[in-house]
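Budget justification note: compute hours in this period were largely spent on complex prediction jobs such as the one shown. Inputs:
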Amino acid sequence: MSNITAITMPKWGLTMTEGKILEWLKHEGDAIAPSDELLEIETPKITNVMEAGETGTLRRIVAQPGATLPIGGLMAVLAPPEVADAEIDAFVAGFVAPETSGEDDTVSDACGPRETEAGGKRLRYLDIGSGDGPPIVFVHGFGGDLNAWMFNQPALAERHRTIALDLSGHGGSTKIMDFVLDAAGFAADIDHVLAALRVDRVHLVGHSMGGAIAVAFARSHPDRVASLTLIAPTGLGPEINGEFIDGFVKAERRREAQEVLRMLVHDPELVSRAMVEDVLRYKRLDGVAAALSAIAVEWFPNGAQRAGWADAVATLAMPVQIIWGRDDRIIPVSHGQALAGRMPVHIFESAGHLPHMEKAAEVNRLIARFLDS
Amino acid sequence: MPLKSIRQALNEALAQEMRRDPTIIVIGEDVAGGAGSDGQRDAYGGVLGVTKGLIGEFGEARVIDTPITESAIMGAAAGAAVTGLRPVAELMFSDFFGVCFDQIFNQAAKFRYMFGGKAKTPLVIRTMIGAGRSAAAQHSQSPYGIFTAVPGLKCVVPSNAYDAKGLLIQAIRDDDPVIFCEHKLMYDLRAEVPDEPYTIPFGEANVVRDGNDVTVVALARMVHYAMTAADELSKDGIEIELIDPRTTSPLDEDTILESVERTGRLVIVDEATPRCSIATDIAALVADKAFAALKAPIRRVTAPHTPVPFAPDLEKLYIPSPEKIAAAVREVYGYGR
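Corresponding output:
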């Protein structure tokens, strides 16, 4: 029975405990190859497509659309065509569902995020996975946190060490903003976390404001950055959606928050109640309102981007790739298109400002391939 | 994120706020000692341990143990509030509000208005509500409807530890008197609660669960009973939208109305008695402002109009149950189909 593979409910992000099957994109009997789109799964945060990891025939769909399964629950069975139906039956019958995690061990277990007092301030990070070569470090954008990488970090952690951090003023990190709030100031957070973990050289992946911060780190530590993946980064032009920045800073209530968050994605339906609630829970923390206002003033005065690094790109020694969503309503895709020819620029259709969530599997593949090349 | 009980969440909110602002004091019966105390220093921290550790850290000047005299506690707290402190007073059982209601209802609630806006009254009254412990008719009531009926008072009825911490900090920072109702059977209920201080705005309901078939509004312990009912109903394909108003004054009318405009069906669950109650108030609100959207009569699942029975079996019957909630939802769901 070793050639029978269980397709089970994946774990996307720290808080996911179960997922709901929305639709199967393959039918029983279909031949499956790695990275074929198998099914759509709804998590509390967002809906995502799960791809196949192995080759085989989709022999049995165990969980139908509408079903909600715990992480590790059996959704389907993959096996070569020659395996007898009886064997599949036996496999399904004998499948031992993993124990559903009780409330005692949901998040604060050993593989959850940790905090360091590095550099005299509290910084939270999530360090998972192992592998050869420099670890991948994820840097989120304005108002985000390490959970922004919920679809990327677990997948890439299968073959690499991955570290996602919360920048100052964000997530579980300090809300005391007693430093110069420019890209170099935030890049020091990366340095602090890496120093605490005794990590020298890394691959950097940065989104939006985190992209500009990754660039700042790479410019001051060129020998420590093996590659740069920049997803819809700031710093390539003056345009930015001032209405979004202003609305995000001001939003206190569910309705307001939902309205601005919908600007982030191509399909507004992706913004779930849980996603809105997470943002509000962050924004309610003492110090966050002041931190976000201060960052917005420094980075996006009068609804425009202040500092740029477009000219510095040519001087960077490490490989750089750019990823963007065609329908980005926060920072125009033209900022990325202008760099085509100088570096790889990947533009995704039907994606907004969060291609790493909206097109997670494709973005993960781009990052993995970029590291290998 | 760490899991904390409602008791821990409230304790942490008090301690963090008292560290931040030296004008915050705690005053009430047994808030320093309580059961097992040597009479001087902290042992249990009130009858339910919510104020544990505060006297050790903040001292007797800021954690004031009082005699059993609710009128003096509330009178002192209201006066302290209007003269510049931020008292968090404890009314051990909300059932005792009768002896101190002049101080609350006719004094604290009216100061801002009577002094032409020149006085503020940043007073929090923490108090225990709820039936289910066979504590009989004088220690089991949920009179938040009465507090809600008084203009000038704000009223908070949290259902989980996350909300409890954020709403208590919000209450302490609010410049008006706030009655903060804690259900006596829920102190050990745990949820993910950030270590950092945070606030939850008043008048912002929590949508506990999404659904398009029937809107269910529930408070405090009834939120959890409604969730149990929701899981049962979901097996039959009935998806309720569950709304926890969190504060009854101010009330987030918009969230309730918008939901009913979508579902056309409403069930309100309230552990309190039904006459002139929150359940009745919300029913009137929806009948008044969303009548055209209704596809079925509004149903209220409440306690009967009687004192809370002492006999455990009768008390069980008295409190709304998940079964009663599910039955009401089915009735409303099936109406006119």
